[in-house]
Amino acid sequence: MRRSLTVFSVTALALILCGTGLWAQVGPYMLVRVEVNQEVKVIPLLELGLDIADGVKGQYLDIVCHPGELDMIRDLGYSAEVLIADMERFYAERSGSRDMGGFRTYSEAIHEIFDIHANHPDITTEPFSIGQSIEGWELYVIKVSDNPTIDEDEPEIFFNALIHAREPIGLTIVMELINRLTDRYGIDPRITYLVDNREIFFLPVFNPDGYIYNEHTNPNGGGMWRKNRRLNPDGSYGVDLNRNWSFNWGYNNLGSSPIPSAGNYRGTAPFSEPETEAFRQFCNSHHFAITLNFHSYSNKMLYSWSIPYEPWGYTLDDPTFQNLSQIMSQWNHYEYGPPWEILYQVNGDACDWQYGEKREKPRILGWVFEVGSSSVGFWPPPRVIPRLVEENMEPCFFLIEQAKNYIPTPVMLSYISGEIDDEAGGNGNGGLDPGENVLFTPTLRNTGWRTSTGISAVLICADPNIGITSNTATFPNIAPDTSAASNFPYAFSVSASCPLEYTVNFGLIWSCNEGYSDTAFFDLIVGDPLFEPLGPDAYGYFAYDIYDETGPDFNWIEVDPVVGGPGTLINFTQSDQTVRIPLPFSFQYYGRSDTVISVCSNGWIAMGSTELAGYYNFPIPDLSGPPAMIAPFWDGLSPHQTGNVAYYYDPVEHYFVVEFDSVGQQIPPSALETFEVIFYDPDHYPTLTGDGQILFQYKQVSDPTSNTVGIEDHTETIGLQVLYNRELDPHMAPLEPNLAILFSTPTSGELLEEWFAAGEEAVPDDYSLGQNYPNPFNSMTTISFGLPQAAYVTLKIYDIAGRLVESPLRGWRDAGYHEVRFDGTGLASGVYLCRIEARDYAAVRKMVLMK
Fold first, then answer.
1. CATH superfamily membership of 99-406
2. Beta-carbon neighbour count of residue 715 at 10 Å?
3. Could you tell me which CATH number the domain at 10-85 has?
4. Catalytic residue among 167, 215, 341, 370
5. What is the pLDDT of residues 356-391, one digit of tens each?
6. CATH number of 751-849
């Protein structure tokens, strides 16, 4: 589900910013809760560069602001409740006026790690500087390992804290972890093993300038300075060091700000700050498997991607992130997921750089721990500090253990996809089917950090249903994060007795010139339902995609006049808007005829007239949406702000097109979707039921993660669901560019099939083709056949001269008796031959058509 864009204009907001001096930041730091019960309301707050501390998606955001910013928020129409009127005073008083609120100062932390080294010189390095801050303070790192001065071949992990200067709980956790590793070494077997078999690095204070500034301004704790202390050209101070990384730096103004005085100002360029550049160089000189970046607050474990970056907001390692986070959540009970999904968008951050940047270094699994709840805040009271530390100790030890499983490998090849060629040895549908001899061309991806050369791979399979006849192939060189198909195909056969929808496990044992080798395992499905249409539903509609044997071809029809098309624009002026458009012909849909359609800005069409304009997508069919819905991309879209919607009637080809061209999603607004719906005039494209055919075509697909695709009838109880919130029907191809989906009842000359409902006992002993009935027939006749086992069946109709006139049935059918109705309306009177082929069985019956 997405939400359509707010009525606030980005341009207007920018003018307000410039005209009011919003970023003067005069007065105390306040914590205010802003109601954002619709996702649309979040966008302007993010664009303003406001300092968002916490939130619950779809409910509220907690924002750190000054009085002038609060006035701005309210002037824009938001409801804002002041939770804390003066955060610095509140935190200091709550801590009982303890020095630094009960936390270590920068100098205390640095002295302590030097003392730790003095007490444990055999398992720690002397703290060393990886660089200096803007103001010249050292960024000290300490290493814990059994041979600390030697770069051993052991898994490396890196912990850091205080990239944001007002978040000292991370420093406390890091210091406690260092102390436990060193004090319990030689006593605790688990810790001893980890120190002996890992290289563990710590940067306790990432942002010394900001932290020391807070110490000077608020010696009793509670200082709210967040950024470093760079003097910006406009006279303001500070760059948010967690928006200053190169990966997706400045991707948009929702996850970082170009305004120097904003709390999440990203700087003038990636790595413009010496602190982030020092961290970058240090990471590039190591092969870290895991990093853990401590922040506060919100009780969350966050991992990439921080924006809805391809593929659709989730990394290729998302299952790993989810699995490890789920395990860690049993100890700290934190929510986990990508920031964009469970909190808000971030770009140019450390976590995405650690994971996403692979030109300079290996990929690193990086987490952000947002420690503490909203009641704890940035400066937790002394009484809860031990609990916050303790709940994160076990996750830290767990990640140190897990580092061995995620050591960056210079070359790592994984299976991405494979192409089946069964034209010569099978039915030509591009899938695996029983009894076929196929050529197989796999594609491998290099997820390592070095180019792989001289790749060869051996195909293996232990399944008795598979016989490999050519098992060796080579691959071209594969650079990091790129893919390549084999230079020539493998070959194997599938047993004729292999069941349908049967999963076969294969492996590719690969090796390369760089000296690395491994096995990439993957599964292929025999009798994959992808190659069969979806349906029929209870009325008789099927959904055919480009992979189905009788499916449509993608053939884009451009109608948007803005890009040269012949169509007429639909003028959407606001979010959640539905416009009624007359059809140039009567269109029957689920047995009802209409001459009007309702086109909604949120990516759906309804037959007839409706006032509904819902953005919240549901499964289909479902009573929650409008009746008689046709949903090519039901989601929160914003054609009134980004892109165009146009319609066009072609009187020669007799079809009506509605195109959504480069229409932006609300979340994320950068995701542009281009798709169209084509209504075919039933008088010129007849079906057996008289219902019209509908074609969906997709030219551009950016983010199909929370939308609905399908059709439903006027009662909203019958329909076909292709996709709902990433749940794709197995019969359908993924939503991607160049996809076409045709919704149709059986057409003239096709077979309308009905299954005997006699139960499982109605399975014949032999194959059979019954005589059609009636015979002779006038247009309509019934053909029956029996299958003792599931088989790929073809029924072909020939004229008396042996010419093929119809090939209407080609597909898998289960064992049992089957009955079909054949419509010969388009054929001339005469004698015809019906031939069936199923596995090794073939038979012919004579049919007489008399009109």
1. Zn peptidases (3.40.630.10)
2. 12
3. 3.30.70
4. 370
5. 887 788 889 999 999 999 899 999 999 999 999 999
6. 2.60.40.2550
